[in-house]
From TrEMBL:
DNA-binding as UniProt keyword: yes
Source organism (scientific name): Arachnia propionica
Keyword Heme tagged: no
Domain of life, per lineage: Bacteria
Protein name: MerR family transcriptional regulator
Length: 251
């Protein structure tokens, strides 16, 4: 029996030794033996299994799905078919997002760079108010137009825009870490987003929930948020929904 060290196996498979140790921990690809000094050794005949795992991983399958596939020889074709369906759905979603972002670019081009920040902000705000009215009625649009602090200066707009971008980046970080939208760290960040929003919008919790829905469905808002991460609009919408559910009294 020809044995290979963990570094030799890693080099042949194009993965890191750390990943091999992770696969061992999951029971996905175990060494043939572990020597007294803790070194992992692999039978060369086990390499096809690892190469199969690596190929499936690069195809985008999760480790749980791969574990099922390598345990059941007959399941690989069906799993890949399901994965292909998911990839096509994701492609369609990304195509839709691309169209939204392209529309956002066109809209900003129409506004023109010569328009001062405050004027551009007011134009975008009015357009958003009209979309709120179309979906939720006149009161929703009126709530957005009723500015609690009065007209904003160009400096106010620049500051608010910068803070909102920072919040979206932090939302994306939490999302990529795998935190659920209703987790405590996410709720704390939604609270900051809510506080910032109510600085220029007299929005009650019901109105804030509507804003969350529009982040996912309105092309302009979805384009702005999705430019940070394509999955962010839907994730923040769920986070706002969970935040409002916790704060609204039960009937």
């Amino acid at each position: 029996m020809v044995e290979l060290s963990i570094s030799e196996v890693a080099e042949r498979a194009g993965v890191s030794a750390r990943m091999l140790r992770h696969y061992d921990k999951l029971g996905l690809f175990r060494p043939t033996r572990v020597s007294g000094n803790g070194y992992r050794w692999y039978d060369r005949r086990s390499l096809p299994r690892l190469q199969r795992i690596v190929a499936l991983r690069r195809a985008g399958l999760g480790l749980e799905a791969i574990a099922e596939i390598v345990a059941d020889e007959e399941s690989e074709l069906e799993a890949l078919r399901r994965h292909l369906v998911g990839l096509r759905a994701e492609r369609d979603r990304l195509d839709s997002l691309i169209e939204s972002i392209a529309g956002l670019i066109d809209e900003l081009d129409r506004v023109g760079s010569e328009v001062p920040g405050r004027a551009r902000f007011e134009q975008e705000k009015e357009a958003f108010a009209q979309r709120l009215e179309q979906r939720y009625g006149p009161e929703a649009g009126a709530a957005l137009r009723n500015d609690p602090l009065g007209p904003l200066t160009d400096a106010d707009v620049a500051h608010t825009t910068a803070v909102m971008r920072q919040l979206l980046t932090r939302f994306a970080d939490l999302m990529t870490q795998g935190l659920p939208p209703d987790s405590a760290p996410v709720r704390a960040l939604v609270r900051q987003h809510h506080d910032l929003t109510t600085r220029y919008w007299s929005a009650d919790l019901a109105s804030y929930r509507r804003l969350g829905a529009l982040l996912e469905t309105d092309p302009l808002q979805c384009g702005i948020t999705g430019a940070v991460d394509p999955g962010l609009p839907a994730w923040i919408a769920r986070a706002i929904e969970a935040y409002v559910d916790r704060r609204q009294p039960l009937n």
